[in-house]
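Sharing in case it's useful to others searching the archive later.

Someone asked me privately for the predicted structure of zinc transporter, so I'm posting the question and my answer publicly. Question first, with the sequence:
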Amino acid sequence: MMTPRQISEDRGVGSSPHFRHTPLQIIHVIGNFLRIWSVYSMYSYFSQTGASVVLFIFTCLIPSSILFLALQKPWKGRALSNQQVVPSVINGVITALYFILWGKGLKSCGPVRAILAEYSGAVLGVLSAALYGRRGHIWKKIGGLIAMLASFYFLSQGMGHGHIFPLLYPCADPIFLIEFTEEVLGMGEMVVPILAGILSALRRVIARRVSLKNQLKRRLNAITITSATCFLFPVAMWDFITGSTSGNSVQLPFSTWAFLSTTLFGVILIFYIDSIAEERLHMVFSSPRHLMVAGGCIIVMEIVYKMDFSLPGFIICSLLLGFGIYEATALERGKKGSFQEPDPLTGVLEDQVQMSPLPT
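And my answer, the predicted structure tokens:
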């Protein structure tokens, strides 16, 4: 017969994983908050100076690639095969294109639309279901895709901004209507950040497929970021030359806080934070849980930066987007209601492998 002390010890052991995950969840929230803070500082810098997006991102990727190479040292340890290096270099091209599109989308659409559009990568789950999935789940995923598109449409119409909803245009006061329509965009402008979100999901999927082990993933990420920096170099130089020869004064893309926050929080720290979320919390980027964390951080930063923000409209768009992501990427629920976050491309998690600790 077990004593009360043994029973209490057994309960403590059973509940210890939840307590172990609590610090990791706090780290995940703080890391995403710092990353979103860097996004708002970047947007503020673009709005005030009109600096070149490509030049600014290129200057941020240079120290990021150097730090990744210094931390991971991909040339040491077990030699990497061509089947791993070549896809990582190709992934660098996708990463470079993602940064260009995302930066231009941030500059033209604002931080709320640019950040939420990053979750458009969940449409890869719909595509994989249509190609490889069961026919019974296709309509469910298509419904999720429709919800996501509705969310992006409402965002493009300014539902997350201003003090009225676009559905109230016919009965809105003209004074408020003029002030509000400054935030209205067409779906054409939203295509740029949406494409950036799809490319972001694609580069994550390629990195996950090429590297099954955690330490290998970090070594290949250093190669990917370095490759992206190299591919951005000619584009940045062309942007600089064409800007200087057009007669316009080219302002060097440097602002201390925007540069440091984007480099440290937006590129370097967020990679390790997302790795912790995937390995320990089983939370991929394109998931409702990740969106909930990002949404809370967005609300705080919109208030701090005193942006033209509509909380009800933002909540409606976020709920639609979260529902769409859930339906587009969710796995089959077991009879006991168990659920795991899926891979955005295949809808299936890879087998869990033993992960090595993060570098100190």
